[in-house]
Amino acid sequence: MKSFFRNQIYLLWGVLPVLPLGAALLALETLHGNAGLLALETTPLFVGADSDLRLLSGLLVYSAVGLFHLTVCLVIGLWAIVRLLAQPRRIITRTAVVLGLSLGACVLMGYGARQEGLDGALFLTYRNICAVINAADLGSNFLPTSCTSAGVSLLAWIALLPLIAGILATGFVSALVSAGIGPSESDEEGLKRTASILKDAFQANVVVLVTSAVTLSLFFKLPLSILHADATAAFSGYGSALTLFYGMIFTLTLFAIFVPARLLLLRAARSKGDDTLNASLSDVLGDKDMRQRFLNFLLALSPLLVGAASPLLEAFVGML
Predict the structure, then answer these.
(1) Helix (H) or strand (E) holding 106
(2) Structure confidence at residue 205 (pLDDT)
């Protein structure tokens, strides 16, 4: 039985990247249940006569960054596929299972939340932004007639596509990481190959999640371009808090995917009793000295640091 679980441990990487997202949905649902957030739709807003133009400027910046993010996710997804296709057939098969498991878990989680009426994340991260923009009465044709309706507007797709791209790219990277997990990859060449995959996959996933955080931050701050200066204080804090929240979730996602994989790799290497092999793997993983370890830790925190830098993005949006 113990041997069976050891051979199937790679399946965990179909679940690990989904756990932080599930925790985020539960946390947002709890917060939504304790606040009267729909009042935003009737809150008077102080907007200028040039609101349409200012919102368009904000959307252009958001769209440019969002397009860059989509391109990054596409390139990294294709890179992960190419790396996977270079693996033996048995590895390709099991990583396809891991990818299907992680994407299926996301779909089931979203479907279950909708069936149970758990829409806290939807209200906090999309409908409130939509409500503020709608309250300005701009007459833009991309806005929904009601931010609480079930219909999907162009604004919803603008918000949704970067999120879907980030989830897909992260799923492909997590599947790639699982390619090096398990007893079948415990020989010296397999361990070196796994270390190389972990290093490249970690850097690729950092790029995906940082661009995801930047894109989300710009979306959360779209209303700032149409609010009067006296009305921006509360909402800027709201956008910054959301950016920090998702930055933390993205950082936890990195830890969930890569920390267990690194521990299993180093444990397998130590079991060989080969100091030269251990030194070689540490060098590949960037774990050779304290400076490299600190740099890796800083990279893992980079999505969260986007939230800390949120005021800079806010100042940029305010200049539009």
Answers:
(1) helix 89-115
(2) 93
**Mean pLDDT of all residues belonging to the chain:** 77
The answer for 182, left when phi > 0, alpha when psi is -120 to 50, beta otherwise, is left
Distance separating alpha carbons of residues 118 and 145, to the nearest angstrom: 22
Distance from C-alpha of 84 to C-alpha of 72, rounded to nearest angstrom: 18
Rounded CA separation 221/202 (Å): 29
- The pTM of the whole model exceeds 0.90: no
Residue that the structure tokens 């891991």 belong to: 98
Render the burial of 169-196: b for 16+ CB within 10 Å, e for the rest: bbbbbbbbbbbbbbeebbeeebbbbbbe
Q: Which residues, in sequence order, are CB contacts of 166 under 8 Å at separation 6+?
A: 69, 73, 208, 209, 211, 212
Residue carrying the six token digits 């955080």 = 213
Residue 45 amino acid letter = L
Q: Tell me 179's DSSP state.
A: T
Boundaries of every domain in the chain: 46-318
Model confidence at 7, pLDDT cuts 50, 70, 90, reads low
pLDDT tens, position by position, 101-160: 888 888 888 777 777 667 777 777 887 787 777 776 665 666 666 665 555 677 777 888
Q: What is the DSSP string of 146-162?
A: -TTSSS--HHHHHHHHH
Looking at 119-274, list the stretches that DSSP marks H as alpha helix, in order from N- to C-terminal side.
120-122, 128-135, 154-178, 188-220, 232-270
pLDDT > 90 in the chain, percent: 12
Q: Return the structure tokens found at 252.
A: 């936890």
- As to burial, measured by CB atoms within 10 angstroms (0-12 exposed, 13-18 middle, 19+ buried), residue 117 is exposed
Judging by beta carbons within 10 Å of its beta carbon (0-12, 13-18, 19+), is residue 127 exposed, middle or buried? buried
Instruction: Please state the φ and ψ torsions of residue 149, each to the nearest 5 degrees.
Output: -80, 160
- Least confident span in 3-12, 45-54, 200-209: 45-54
